[in-house]
Amino acid sequence: MKSMDSFVGEFEKAEWSEISKTIISADRCKIERALDGEGAGGLEDLAALLSPLANQEYLEEMAQLAHQLTKQRFGKVIRLFAPIYLSNECNNICDYCGFSMGNQIPRKTLSNVEILREIGILKKHKFEHVLLVTGESSKKVGVDYLYDSIKVLNEYFANVSMEVQPLKEDEYQYLISAGLHAVLVYQETYEKKSYAKHHLKGRKRNFDWRLNTPDRLGRAGINKIGLGCLYGLTQDWRTDSFFAAMHLNYLEKRYWQTSFSMSFPRLRPCEGELNPVVDLKDRDLVQLLCAFRIFNHELELSLSTRESPTLRENLLPLGITTMSAGSKTNPGGYAGNVESLEQFSISDERSPHEIQEMLRSKGYEPVWKDWDSSYQCLAKTLPKDTVLLDKADSKILAVS
Amino acid sequence: MSGNTDSLKLGDFEFDSRLFVGTGKFESGQLFEKSVSASGSQMVTVAMKRANPNAQDDSILDFIDSETIKILPNTSGVRDAKEAIFVARMAREALQTNWLKLEIHPDPKYLMPDPIATLEATKELVRDGFIILPYCHADPVLCKKLEDAGAAAVMPLGSPIGSNQGLQTKEFLRIIIEQSSIPVVVDAGIGAPSQAAEAMEMGASAVLVNTAIAVSSDPVAMGDAFGKAVKAGRMAYLAGMGKVSKKATATSPLTSFLS
User: Fold this and answer.
1) d(C-alpha B136, C-alpha B154), whole Å
2) Which uninterrupted H or E stretch holds B186?
3) Which of B34, B70, B101, B144 does the annotation list as catalytic?
């Protein structure tokens, strides 16, 4: 679909090479204007903040501003979530992913009982926000499986997000009716040639289908959409990031009742290993985080356990609002399944409790619950006088 | 709560302090408790979206002395009237209070309150026996309609929530205060004690502050500063503010020949 109802139309009007030139050639004047105006110049400011010169000479100023803006909007709190991998089945061949169909690994899709085991462990760790993750196999992990899984997870958690294969608009509506709150769908890269090079087989090869997924989600009325690039697939990470920001801008205007998050995953070693085509340095990651915070003061910025403990702690004040903790990236991983292979290796292996204590020692309050899916589901259906909480429970009601 | 002759009457309560405080964005419950204590506030608002009936620790409620401080649950995060009504009933059951700060913001970016949904939900919840304090735009007509719908107070915004921009809506707040028969609590955007004092000098009944206290480097001192500013502003309002004039008074009147 290339109509005006989707991002593809806008995407095709943008010239990668022109944007790349604008970013590379940004001068002091443009960078300082972006900093003085706290990013009020939108994409033009972002281009300057993503420039090599900003990286070399303005990183500390960017960090200070990003810190101030984040504190102002979000306060001294960090939301915590855990991914819950339900399946590593996948029909795609992607040269960077552990779940890729060509990899000879044990495949696993969790049954309801196995999901309950995972839930039991995550509940002990206090998690209320979970991210359901699968590979992309519409036959083995179809919409009905996802619907049932969301229903089960919703009984135990306040907030369920999802990162699976792109779906149709009516399928998203169906899953939202089960209590789905947010969907993460990273484009991986906005550079079409790189995209084709790394996505070798399967439905994921269809660049436009993936690119229009957030439009379908917006039309379906989802609460939150997560965007991002996977760093390591495309040489020119600055321009790739700029396109992600264009995408965000477009979506924010069109789906004004939806909120957005952005992540900056760097390619990690995995089975069937691909050496990243670009090494995104820590300094570059800092620049990205700060540039996006200055570009969009309200954007949720999320950081996974892909990054090391030391780096995660140092990135905290620069704009991060959400973190995963104690993650396992293989199906059944929390209950101790070691047979199914993980999607990528994690770096920060600290337990959720250790992450909580680390946050407190840094002057941040961990937030375990920040929304309740029952608002969106039950509000529509419950009769007026329904008792919503057991009175005995109300005495131990806690607000974290 | 009061022997004070200038207490604020709201619902069936009287408040000595005209400063209300939000509980979000603080780095810890302990710091929140100390800063509320320093501010002298007697009412704090708590987001139900962060309420967790299962958790047994980490509760901000553990840091609120409900003997001296009234808890005002709020519906922060809801997108429409139905969700707000659902959360209101949940709050009533969970916190055993029929007081509610009603906030409905379908726009997650600037958190602008939805005037239509807010009015609808106010009507429904008042019918259901709630004491409703609706967060709304500084729209004089909307505020009168909320009053007619039975709101216990109106809470118009000074500027976008969390922005610290102060009273950008000053002229409209002035009209709202002039026309209102119920308390007017200026909510959102107050970023400095001087701005809180300004709202009180204009005749606001109270102000609600969160971000400016919570994200300060010293929230306890900032709580104290806001408490004092609100008192000073109120005293100035009661004492009668001098008229502001753009002109100097002429020393050589042009019409003195008539007398």
Assistant:
1) 7
2) strand B185-187
3) B101
Size of interface A-B (CB pairs under 8 A): 142
What is the residue-wise DSSP string for B133-182?
EEEE-S-HHHHHHHHHTT-S-BEEBSSSTT-----TTHHHHHHHHHH-SS
Q: Which of residues 180-239 of B touch A (CB under 8 A)?
A: 211, 214-215
**Does domain A3-369 correspond to CATH entry 3.10.20.600?**
no
Is residue B10's pLDDT more than 60? yes
Look at residues A73, A41, A132, A50 and name the one whose alpha carbon lies nearest to residue A320: A73
Residue A274, judged by CB atoms within 10 A of its CB (0-12, 13-18, 19+), counts as middle
What residue has token string 């004039």?
B245
A374 touches chain B (CB under 8 A): yes
Smallest CA–CA distance, residue A113 to chain B, in Å, is: 22
Helices (H), chain B: 29-39, 81-95, 115-127, 140-148, 170-179, 193-201, 211-214, 219-239
How many CB atoms sit inside 10 A of residue B216's CB? 16
Confirm or reject contact between B131 and chain A (CB < 8 A).
no
What integer pLDDT is reported at residue A237 of this predicted model?
96
> Do β-strands A259-263 and A322-324 pair in parallel, antiparallel, or remain unpaired?
unpaired
pLDDT over threshold 90, residue B220? yes
**CA torsion, points A132, A135, A141, A143, in degrees to nearest 10?**
60
State whether residue B3 is helix, strand or coil: coil
Cα nearest neighbour of A259 on chain B: B108
Rounded Cα distance between B112 and A376, Å, is: 19
- The verdict on a CB contact (< 8 Å) between B82 and A379 is yes
Whether A398 and B51 lie within 8 Å, measured CB to CB: yes
ipTM of the shown complex: 0.71
Q: H or E element: which one contains A184?
A: strand A180-184
Write the pLDDT tens digit of every residue in B96-155. Answer: 899 999 999 998 888 899 999 999 999 999 999 999 999 999 999 999 999 999 999 999
Walking along chain A (400 residues) 10 residues at a time, the average pLDDT comes out as: 72 94 96 94 96 96 95 90 91 83 84 90 91 89 94 91 96 94 96 92 92 96 95 94 97 94 84 71 95 96 89 92 90 78 76 91 88 68 44 39
Kind of pairing, strands A398-399 and A159-163?
Answer: unpaired
Closest Cα in chain A, distance from residue B246 (Å): 32
Q: Name the residue among B59, B79, B106 with its Cβ closest to that of A399.
A: B59
User: What sign results for the dihedral spanned by CA atoms A181, A399, B114, B208?
Assistant: negative
Q: What is the pLDDT of residue B131?
A: 95
Look up the pTM and report it: 0.83
- pLDDT (0 to 100) of residue A258: 94
The residues, any chain, with a CB within 8 Å of residue A183's CB and separated by 6 or more, are A161, A162, A163, A172, A217, A222, A224, A225, A226
Q: Which residues contact A133 (CB under 8 A, 6 or more apart)?
A: A83, A84, A85, A86, A162, A163, A164, A329, A343
